[in-house]
Amino acid sequence: MLSWLSCTFMVFGLLFAGSATAQTQKRTSDLTLNDMFASPNAAAAQAVSFSAGPNNIRFVLDRSQPRVVLLRFEGDPEVWALTSQWGPRGDEFLRNDIGEVIVRITTLGGVTVYGPLGTNGGLAASEGRAKTLSAPVRSEGNLQATLEKALRWFDKFSSRNIRVEASGALPPALVHEALERAAQGMSRAPRGYFGRPERRVKLIRVQRSFDRPSVRWQSGVLTIGVVPGAGYAGRPSSAAVLLALTKGK
């Protein structure tokens, strides 16, 4: 492990340093991988913007959280809460909540992003520092207003009304985030998928989960478990919602 920590910054690298003071005292050419990756999911108020692929897809990678790495693609409202896993050769793999690899970072600092670029991924180049991704804050002010707005997101999935409910003890911003991800996940199902009676969504329920976020689909009821205080890692991703709805179908 010590051998790769001494390598210098190569073509594709994240400009992460051990501290803000160290960054102001070093030139980019002086940065080492020890500066950029002090430890898996190291807490540091740092974020970097990247571009990748022939379509110049942009995204921000944010390591400001202690246990997750946040990622957001330009033009997409979803913020992915990724967990870090280290491979046998020292590469770092950032996975979403259903285990898919979204980003791979090599020991030399090369970054490959997957997801919207397809299964083969695309090399990403740093475009410099970016603003950190703030915690979920969007809501309609109170829980009831937030639920009423969310109802409009689900109209297109059923010819009949879909009910939406949430525990009154949950923060409206977290409920808004969870329901928006649910609508996004449902929109990625095959066209006409919810037209069959056994696939019709009757109720979407958001409730508190005390250990980790969850999604359960049973008898027309989509139950989403959220963890208050955990930020984006406290609700299931759109990928987790889609998987729960389509698994085994």
Concise synopsis of the structure shown:
The protein has helices at 2-5, 20-25, 33-36, 143-153, 172-187, 238-246, and strands at 47-52, 57-62, 69-73, 80-86, 92-95, 101-105, 111-113, 122-129, 163-166, 203-208, 214-218, 221-226.
Comma- or semicolon-separated keywords:
249 residues, alpha+beta, 2 domains, eight-stranded antiparallel beta barrel, four-stranded mixed beta sheet, 26% strand, globular
Number of helices: 6
Question: What multimeric state do the chains show?
Answer: single chain
Shape: globular
Structural class by helix and strand composition: alpha+beta
Main β-sheet: number of strands, strand sense, barrel status? 8 strands, antiparallel, barrel
Cα-to-Cα separation, first versus last residue: 44 Å
Give the ordered list of helices and strands: HHHEEEEEEEEHEHEEEH
Mean pLDDT: 81
In angstroms, what is the radius of gyration?
20 Å
Strand arrangement across the biggest beta sheet: 1-2-3-4-5-6-7-8
What low-confidence regions span 5 or more consecutive residues with pLDDT below 50? 1-45
Total strand segments: 12
Portion of residues in beta strands equals 25-35%
Number of domains: 2
DSSP helix fraction: 10-25%
